[in-house]
Write a structure and sequence with these properties.
Layout: E1 2-7, H1 8-18, E2 23-26, H2 33-42, E3 48-51, H3 55-67, E4 72-77, H4 78-94, E5 100-106, H5 119-126, E6 130-131, H6 136-153, E7 157-162, H7 163-166, E8 169-174, H8 192-195, H9 199-219, E9 227-229, E10 237-241, H10 243-253, E11 259-262, H11 271-278, E12 283-287, H12 293-305, E13 310-312, H13 327-338, H14 343-349, H15 369-380, E14 386-389, H16 414-425, E15 430-436, H17 437-453, E16 458-464, H18 493-500, E17 505-508, H19 513-525, E18 529-535, E19 549-550, H20 560-565, E20 570-572, E21 579-581, H21 591-595, E22 601-602
Parallel strand pairs: 2-3, 2-4, 4-5, 5-7, 6-7, 10-11, 10-12, 12-13, 14-15, 15-16, 16-18, 17-18
Antiparallel strand pairs: 1-8, 9-11, 19-22, 20-21
Length: about 625
């Protein structure tokens, strides 16, 4: 054993490696991304690690490995579970041979997500057991226990970490590599009666799953991480909690007397342990994120066994019904439930007030090629009835002023489908759908097929910056490399689109403003499904070769560059009359130079690889 200071996601990955994982597959999404990246960095050649094209593919790849007796880990964030739910729902009916853990990083807040959905609730819906860690050290240990549990009961299991566990840091005790378990898969054994899902098999297995989960309520009551902290025994009040909220609860008690139940496996719910906890109590406060999973379970148990215990929590309004918990929120809830802590204990737990945070609205980076792409489309379509359907990624920030180029945003790939629906309802609207290169491979291809087949009239804009930028610059099928650094054949977006049947497929550098505007005008004038690939590398991955500067003598103070582009490097001078460029931010993209009516800006140098098509770069 040795000690390491690790992020929660790093600890989870090392725990999986220590458990003998053979395969790791996933799709990047904050706050889960670092799990797979760490597995790729810290594993040897005997562990297969891949960024799959989407979460559904990752789930199916992992299932195939688990069918062979391999230990498989799937990683995703909570909205990725929606994509993976199709194979998952059937997989629980089929079961697995090797251990299969599905890491889903929930995002209370939400901090960087579309939803606050709770994987514990999804566990109940899908009948898949759920493990819910409360610290980085425990996450490292618990994922190993999750693999053992999965293998023993032949079921995939959820490992539900949340943002504060995923991105928290802790010095943990970790196994040395020589202590790792070595799992040698038996291989796939043909047995259609087990691996081929048919209604008759599903009916039989459904009954077995329900029976198993009833038994697991008792089994998991003896799981040591489902624990009761009794207090002094004099108080008739209890607190039931989970995950990071358990740590907040312990830190907020300040010596006050209360019985505490920590639920580490919210599904199947440890009923026997809950009954032990409820004995002798008059009132319980449930402190949890996000859904009232524990609260509902305890209310059910009280009704089932005729217990006269008042259960409070989210449904009673004692805990906020949305958002993530914090020390402040939990502390106030405990004060209201248990009474104020004595002054000395409360003072000891107080932290100095933090300084106010600066206001930092989300904005596209200075020099981001997406800004140029949006601006070219906006210029080309000025005065026309249009809709701009956005997608998930950096380019969602195109919704902000002054660009105002994101009219809709739902989920990955949906913009292409929404544009089709608008066209079929309002044929006189010029419909544009924006999608990133990674999202195109993840969920955009089928939407384009649908548009072409169903004779939609829309312009597809692929914003190709050759990376998965928003989640940390992960590779994808169009980058020509894998997560382990292998050089592979690129998948060509142009060829895919032409293979579907599109005849207007053009690749252009968005930082070549006149050509970009002309291409958009020509595409919009065509009927059917047209595609423009705006290709220019992410500025976070390229070094600027020059920086633009404003000649104050030539600047006429019109403010067009500032007013229309919204680039954070463009600001007013001290007098507020003329434009100035913050050279610490400028990347020399030249977009402002090209739109300046006075020709007052110069000095930038575009990246040489921007806009090159397949085979040129």
């Amino acid at each position: 054993m040795h000690k390491e200071f690790l992020m929660g996601n790093e600890a989870i990955a090392l725990g999986a490696l220590a458990a003998g994982v053979n395969l790791v597959a996933g799709y990047p999404g904050t706050p889960s991304t670092e799990v797979l990246e760490t597995a790729a960095k810290r594993s040897g050649p005997d562990v297969h690690v891949e960024w799959s094209v989407n979460e559904k593919a990752a789930m199916e790849v992992a299932a195939g490995a688990a069918y062979c007796g391999a230990r498989a880990l799937v990683t995703m964030k909570q909205v990725g579970l929606n994509v993976a739910s199709d194979p998952l729902m059937s997989l629980e009916y089929i079961g697995v041979k090797g251990g299969m853990v599905i890491l889903v990083a929930d995002d209370p807040g939400p901090i960087s997500s579309q939803t606050e959905q709770d994987t514990r609730t999804f566990g109940m819906f899908s009948k898949v057991p759920v493990f819910d860690p409360s610290s980085v050290q425990e996450a490292y240990e618990m994922i190993q226990e999750a693999f053992d549990f999965s293998e023993k009961y032949h079921t995939p299991v959820f490992f539900r970490a949340t943002t504060r566990i995923d991105h928290g840091y802790e010095t943990i005790d970790a196994a040395d590599e020589k202590e790792y378990r070595r799992n040698r898969p038996e291989g796939f054994v043909k047995d259609p009666s087990r691996w081929v899902i048919f209604p008759r098999l599903s009916f039989k297995n459904h009954a077995l799953i329900e029976e198993r989960n009833e038994q697991l309520k008792t089994v998991l009551s003896d799981y040591p991480r489902n624990e009761i902290r009794p207090g002094t025994g004099r108080s008739r009040k209890g607190i039931a909690t989970q995950g990071i909220s358990f740590m907040y609860t312990l830190d907020s008690l300040h010596g006050r007397d209360a019985k505490v139940l920590r639920v580490a496996t919210p599904f199947p719910f440890p009923e026997k342990k809950a009954l032990e906890f409820l004995e002798g109590l008059d009132e319980v406060l449930c402190v949890e994120e996000l859904d009232p999973v524990i609260e509902r379970a305890l209310i059910f148990i009280c009704g089932k066994y005729g217990l006269d215990v008042k259960i409070r929590g989210k449904m009673s309004g004692d805990i906020p019904r949305s958002g993530e918990n914090s020390m402040e929120i939990v502390g106030k809830a405990l004060d209201a439930f248990l009474g104020k802590a004595d002054a000395s204990a409360e003072k000891a737990g107080e932290l100095p007030a933090p300084p106010p945070l600066p206001v930092r609205p989300p904005v596209l980076c200075a020099g981001c090629p997406h800004r140029a792409s949006f601006y070219a489309v906006k210029t080309a379509m000025k005065g026309k009835k249009t809709i701009y359907c956005g997608d998930i990624g950096c380019y969602t920030l195109g919704n902000a002023a002054p660009l105002d180029m994101c009219d809709t945003c739902l989920c990955m790939g949906a913009g292409i489908g929404i544009a089709q629906g608008v066209f079929h309802t309002e044929p006189d609207t010029s419909c544009f759908a924006f999608v990133g290169d990674s999202t195109f491979f993840a969920s955009g291809i089928t939407e384009v097929v649908n548009a072409f087949y169903n004779q939609a009239d829309l312009t597809l804009i692929v914003l190709d910056n050759s990376t998965t930028a928003m989640t940390g610059h992960q590779p994808h099928p169009g980058t020509g490399r894998t997560v382990k650094g292998q050089v592979v054949e690129k998948v060509s977006i142009e060829r895919v689109l032409r293979a579907i049947g599109l005849t207007f497929v053009e690749t252009v550098d968005p930082l070549d403003y006149p050509e970009a505007v002309d291409t958009v005008k020509r595409a919009a004038g065509e009927k059917g499904v047209k595609a423009i690939i705006f290709r220019s590398p992410c500025v976070a991955l390229t070094k600027p070769k020059g920086r633009s500067v404003v000649d104050p003598e030539r600047c006429i103070g019109c403010g067009k560059c500032i007013r229309e582009l919204g680039c954070p490097a463009l600001i007013r001078d001290e007098d507020g009359k003329k434009a100035r460029i913050d050279t610490s931010l400028c990347t020399g993209c030249t977009l402002c130079e090209q739109i300046c009516p006075a020709g007052a800006i110069s000095g930038g140098t575009k990246n040489d690889t921007a806009g090159k098509t397949e085979g040129e770069s």
